[in-house]
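Q: Can I see a sequence and its folded structure?
A: Here is a first one.
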Amino acid sequence: EVGGLTFVELSDLIIKHRLSTSIPKDAAQLDEYQTLINRTTEFEQTLVTLGFIGEGCTSLSQYANDVHIHVAGMKCQDLLTRARSILMKPIHDTVAAKPQDILKALAPLCVPIAMVMSGKDGEEEVNCKGMLDGLTFEFLPCQVSKSVVEFRDLLNQILSDSTHCTTFAAGSQLLYSARMVVELFCAVLPCYHRASIAAIPRVAAVQHNNCMYLAHHLFALGYQF
């Protein structure tokens, strides 16, 4: 009983000062972390054998085994920091948007509107059921901020990483991080650049293009990932 009560505080200290500080910064180092997981489990089993704690006290090994979630959590914080720094870059530094990037992502939907089929009498018939014109999702050429293109690339990277996670929990965490990054765009950019958007018409026009460009890209994400 006394050991169990003491172990609660002891485990918190071990997690705070040892396990949390040794979490790998990326998934490539997870194999090395397995050694620490094994030693943590052995440490708990030793305490159980000595009668210091009961069989159900597994807070240390549980924390160590959830390393994928912790790695994803640390990565999410880093991604949000990177996204914020991108959004604070000047809006007026522009580049030409590339509509073909989005069209490429939506290629499975952009099939020719007319499918030619042979009729019974040898004449050609046109079947348009379920077909969309290849230009349906075209984005008009315009100037957008270099930062919003960089922001789009970061968003793609987050979602790509989420599809390669080994656990559902870690993948879900990255997926929600992608959503938070987009919410950060809505919250940070208009506030941080409020003065220039209000005073300089060109900046306001570019910001309009940025929003349209990102919204158009978001539409394609479901088909990419």
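Q: Show me another, different protein.
A: A second, unrelated one:
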Amino acid sequence: NSVSLTEDVPEDVRVTIVAADGVVVADSRDKSLAGSSHADREEIKAAFSGEPKIVTRYSDTLKKDMLYYAIKVDDGSFIRVAIAVESVEDYVKSTVPTMLFVTFISLVVAYVAGVVATDGIVKPLNDIKAALVTVKNCEFKESIPHTGDKEINDILTEINVVSDKLQKTIKESTAEKERLGYLLGNISDGIVALDSEGNISEINGVAEEIFSVRGVCGKSFSVLAANKTFNARIKKCVDERSSDSFEYEADGKAYICTAKTLEAGYTVLVLSDITAVKNAEKNRSEFFANASHELKTPLTAVKGFNDVIALQTKEKTTAELSAKIDKEIERIIKLINDMLGLSKLEAETEPKDAENIDVAEIA
């Protein structure tokens, strides 16, 4: 059987059968090698170790460089195949043009296929991009999917639905913002919205006029005023998430400032102009005080004249009437003194010498 394996072997190939002990059994090119030992050959050693490899070596028999490769078969023997290096080189040289041609054809086919595939994928993507650009510009128009890919058509359909809803939402949001801007711009009160960090997120024109500022959105509320009391009370509202109401004066005008913290974390400041009310109160208080003083002077004179009459009269009836007049004048003077006291209290912005009292005990 070993001898038959070495028969009918192509001329450029050499086959050698080596027994398990390394002795040559048969060789297709040199039958005289039978019985000689090849155990020291590198390719036989590699096959014996279970790691066969190609070995290049000069053949004394064929007088040329050969490539050797051996494998171990089930019965323990080895089959070694050899081919001339020049044959391999000639094969490579003869196949290079063919390989280059095949490579060129493959590249051409790949390019054409890539162009076709790209046109089929990129064009729908360009359609999607164009649709999204129109949505961004609020000019969306629904397009009918016309690609040959059902999945891409489904995606384009879904994008149409989402884009339509998105456009409606954008329009509603824009309209709502315009309405809010109109209200904030035309309301008579100054309005400032602060975020949870105390930075200004919104401010209307009236508030900008009150604080004499421009372009302060994104900045801290402390840029609104240099008033320490104002800043301290607003900071307390922002930090403690509480509400407050107090008076604030700027440029000769008086405002009632209401700070209210919302659930979303915003703090809204509303400044209402109460200058006219304060001036009216001041004028009323001044008139009240002046009128009281003017009334007190003639009443004192009347009381003096009445006292003179009471001292000089001898008639009982006149004396009785004088006593009644004196009593009523005392009542009027006491009422005037009370009004003067109230006017004085109204003129004071803060109580002086304040102390805790028991209202029930006083009552």
